[in-house]
Amino acid sequence: QYLTKSVIFGTMEVKTSSNSVRFDKQRCSFIVLIMFFSLPAVNAVWPMPQLISSSTDRYPLSPRQFIFQYASGSSAKSGCSVIDSAFKRYFPLIFVDYLKKTEKHMYRTFSMQPMLNVYASIHLSFPFSVVDKLSVSSGQASLRAKTVWGALRGLESFSQLVYQDDFGQYFVNKTEIDDFPRFKFRGLLLDTSRHYLPLPAILKTLDAMSYNKFNVFHWHIVDDPSFPYQSSTFPGLSSKGAFHPSTHVYSQTDVSRVISHARLRGIRVLPEFDSPGHTQSWGKGQPGLLTSCYKGSVPSGTFGPVNPAMSSSYQFISRLFKEVASVFPDPYIHLGGDEVDFTCWKSNPEVRGFMQKMGFGTDYTKLESYYMENIINLTKTLNKTSIVWQDVFDNHEKVKETVLHIWKGSPAQIQQELSDITLAGYRVILSAPWYINHIAYGQDWTTYYNVQPLNFTGSEQQKSLVIGGEVCMWGEYVDATNLSPRLWPRASAAAERLWSDEKTTSSVTDAFPRLTDFRCRLLRRGIQAEPLFVGHCRHEYEGI
Amino acid sequence: QYLTKSVIFGTMEVKTSSNSVRFDKQRCSFIVLIMFFSLPAVNAVWPMPQLISSSTDRYPLSPRQFIFQYASGSSAKSGCSVIDSAFKRYFPLIFVDYLKKTEKHMYRTFSMQPMLNVYASIHLSFPFSVVDKLSVSSGQASLRAKTVWGALRGLESFSQLVYQDDFGQYFVNKTEIDDFPRFKFRGLLLDTSRHYLPLPAILKTLDAMSYNKFNVFHWHIVDDPSFPYQSSTFPGLSSKGAFHPSTHVYSQTDVSRVISHARLRGIRVLPEFDSPGHTQSWGKGQPGLLTSCYKGSVPSGTFGPVNPAMSSSYQFISRLFKEVASVFPDPYIHLGGDEVDFTCWKSNPEVRGFMQKMGFGTDYTKLESYYMENIINLTKTLNKTSIVWQDVFDNHEKVKETVLHIWKGSPAQIQQELSDITLAGYRVILSAPWYINHIAYGQDWTTYYNVQPLNFTGSEQQKSLVIGGEVCMWGEYVDATNLSPRLWPRASAAAERLWSDEKTTSSVTDAFPRLTDFRCRLLRRGIQAEPLFVGHCRHEYEGI
């Protein structure tokens, strides 16, 4: 390999008698060896493509001459906002030093041989193709995708194929990639209720998600502690329920910005308005919505879940969801439905009366089902599909056409739940093994990597109902100060599990150097990703 | 309390019919109540002063008129670099909004009543005073300290007494503080070998240390993975032993900058050059230093600890430490001495021959003792005192005048070790309960807070030998990306344990709101301190 390098750089040997430069050159050749052997180009893309073949043939890239262009047969053409803006975004991601004035000089000094141009062309004229293709060969790269979203994934892969040698010269190896995601739903949850996340933290997370080929941002926007969503229909919800009515809210403009930032990166925004539990903050701006808890025969002054006995509750939810449905274009809304505590309902005479009237006896799961069915139907009238946490299934509510979201249980319980839910014919999203807010000393990413989402008893038909998985970053102990280093690269382990073939990515040992390398790439792109273990990146994070 | 506020702001009521402003005002008064009741001024200083009394009488501070000045009787006068630069540093820490152009306007709008000036005066003419005093009363604050370092601590306390009301107006309450640290040695260890920490990360940590009244930066500068210290005597150590010879090193200028930054903040820099183990990276630039390990009768190609059988080893250490002693002005050097694995020594025929010659039999702890005694004596000739890890005591080496550093064991073992070491008459530093690199889900700061350093069997004389404690942030999983949120405010819990009276700070419940408040103050000062639990700060971290 070093011979190849010598040939390519035949005219560039720097001879000097200085000791320090000699050491430097020795280290350089060592680093090159690492690149060629420990981190071969064939493994350079995270998450691992379905098929990738590459050779050691490499082509230099000139940031001065490199252009992206739509191929002549492409159905997407200049003016396609998603691709146009991706071209603009990926240039500085690929040529990461180029825009830094101080390093420009380098190219003048070292770039002595003529460079080859590489054109990334995007064909969008193959609607029946199942597989997106990225091909890098002499002088040209070509990307064929059946959707703009596939084209975005291909651009990400291409950007990861490019590397710099020790002289700062950019290269890409001859490569063929056929790629598609294993799961359609590759989500990440942020919780903006337990702590408020300023907009830059959310946008930065979306950037990092796109580098990891995540495609769903599950925005757990409100919960007990605060209601930062600024509703135009009910402004009191945030003005009274947010941590602060002006500084700790998401205005309609903020929400639009998140949705548009996400869309341009091929990411859907799935809003969650969890009810009837987890709604303490809702009550502040919407008196009468929550159940008044009783101590004996008098109200205790505290409140429980949404009051399911009042028609006004459904009228409120209906109006709120009508707004939510129009603000968030995604065809799904997450309705929550988890951890409903019946204590307060049981204490309230009005609720007890309603139970009697409805013939529910003392089975409060029936009341919960009644509530959930109502708001699921209400969501359906808004032409949206519901996603709910597993509790709704566990309590035997009728939830047809709804997607179930698994969040709890031991590994064995999770497997059972996957079997049961899919046997009942429901689609399912898996989150339980990816509660990434839980931290532990050491390399816990391996746990997230080793998850086998389809390892449960069930038919092929059942397995096909597992539409994907989602990493959850709950906010009890997380805000913008520690979000990025806790997410990355730990969430990247789940990203590969959700995108890549399980057989070709079954080894933690093989993944380690690749993920170490990818983490350095994240750093280089400004993502505050923490280290996996002892070592270093060529460019360390200094943005302290 | 609200009445008081109404009187002070009697002329400032903002009347309006707008709903949103009405909500805003309600929240404001609520926040004021929190400040007066949940976070009373008496508890506003972290770590808790030895004695503090304060009243609800408060004085407005004008950033335009506020000045620091040396009191007329002060022995330190203008020209004292430590205090002069502290005056400059603390102004923007106290008036945190003042230098931001956008918020200047506020003072014009709301500052209607004349303000009182507060002068912080520093008396340095009381060499026999045991207690430093800070007194804030009508129109003037006065700080009496017997050393410049005490004056720095007093300035920190004063800066924490100042708060802003909801209109951005600065206030300080009438307060009397008598203060002194419980322990003389309040350290924090950073490990720059397992990951390189860029200089800004170290300087920022020193800033945060001073806010927490830590006074020793234990710089674990080199270890097995890398040797970033750029030695002028042995440049090969870093050029071959660092992760990168230019980008991942601490030049002499860098080291000076760290020492000077620390000194101005009242922080000593204690360098550690750990040997004979933990020296893999040393071997790269100093061939022949490490023991060559044998497989049978031939060298295996791997290396063990420093070779204690060669006089050249001691000559090398002597020359290296001569440099270290002159570069680092602190009277102490940490010599390490932990975790020496005897396997390689046992395999090496030369070392075995030396054992025989010295009459050590097969007891390799004697060889280890021989090595440590040699370098402790060598350190003594440089007029420095040695600190070593507890292993050196555990292996019964003669270590008179040396300070022992406890780093391991169960709580019971740690108590026993404290008893044993102090009974033998050695001074001791406690780190074992404060290995803050170990993380766990939830509020683990309480564990660090609940440590009782003097809770062991021993006489008063023995207890007085516990000179302090040290928080250790080992670098296996930590670099500049996650250093700050992992350190702060978790290390702050240890900071209070080391500074404050144990009786007045025995309750985690009482500490929680104070630490929550202090964490927000750290954020406001640009320290990326993570949250303790659900909630918010008025000014969130946005520097993502």
UniProtKB/TrEMBL annotation, chains A, B:
EC annotation from Swiss-Prot or TrEMBL: 3.2.1.52
Transmembrane regions listed in the UniProt entry: 28-46
Record's catalysed reaction(s): a ganglioside GM2 + H2O = a ganglioside GM3 + N-acetyl-beta-D-galactosamine; N-acetyl-beta-D-6-sulfogalactosaminyl-(1->4)-alpha-L-iduronyl-(1->3)-N-acetyl-D-6-sulfogalactosamine + H2O = alpha-L-iduronyl-(1->3)-N-acetyl-D-6-sulfogalactosamine + N-acetyl-D-6-sulfogalactosamine; a ganglioside GM2 (d18:1(4E)) + H2O = a ganglioside GM3 (d18:1(4E)) + N-acetyl-beta-D-galactosamine; beta-D-GalNAc-(1->4)-alpha-L-IdoA-(1->3)-beta-D-GalNAc-4-sulfate-(1->4)-alpha-L-IdoA-(1->3)-D-GalNAc-4-sulfate + H2O = alpha-L-IdoA-(1->3)-beta-D-GalNAc-4-sulfate-(1->4)-alpha-L-IdoA-(1->3)-D-GalNAc-4-sulfate + N-acetyl-D-galactosamine
Domain of life where this protein originates: Eukaryota
Protein localization: Lysosome
Keyword Endoplasmic reticulum: no
GO CC entries: lysosome; membrane
Active site: E339 (proton donor)
Entry's Gene Ontology molecular function annotations: beta-N-acetylhexosaminidase activity
Record bears the keyword Metal-binding: no
Pfam family, one: Glycohydro_20b2
One GO BP annotation of this record: carbohydrate metabolic process
SUPFAM superfamilies xref list: (Trans)glycosidases (SSF51445), beta-N-acetylhexosaminidase-like domain (SSF55545)
This protein's UniProt keywords: Disulfide bond, Glycoprotein, Glycosidase, Hydrolase, Lipid metabolism, Lysosome, Membrane, Signal, Transmembrane, Transmembrane helix, Zymogen
Domain Glycoside hydrolase family 20 catalytic as annotated: residue spans: 183-501
Record-annotated Beta-hexosaminidase eukaryotic type N-terminal domain positions: 45-161
Subunit structure: There are 3 beta-hexosaminidase isozymes: isozyme A (hexosaminidase A) is a heterodimer composed of one subunit alpha and one subunit beta (chain A and B); isozyme B (hexosaminidase B) is a homodimer of two beta subunits (two chains A and B); isozyme S (hexosaminidase S) is a homodimer of two alpha subunits. The composition of the dimer (isozyme A versus isozyme S) has a significant effect on the substrate specificity of the alpha subunit active site.
Family per record: Belongs to the glycosyl hydrolase 20 family.
Function noted in UniProt: Hydrolyzes the non-reducing end N-acetyl-D-hexosamine and/or sulfated N-acetyl-D-hexosamine of glycoconjugates, such as the oligosaccharide moieties from proteins and neutral glycolipids, or from certain mucopolysaccharides. The isozyme S is as active as the isozyme A on the anionic bis-sulfated glycans, the chondroitin-6-sulfate trisaccharide (C6S-3), and the dermatan sulfate pentasaccharide, and the sulfated glycosphingolipid SM2. The isozyme B does not hydrolyze each of these substrates, however hydrolyzes efficiently neutral oligosaccharide.
Stated name of the protein: Beta-hexosaminidase
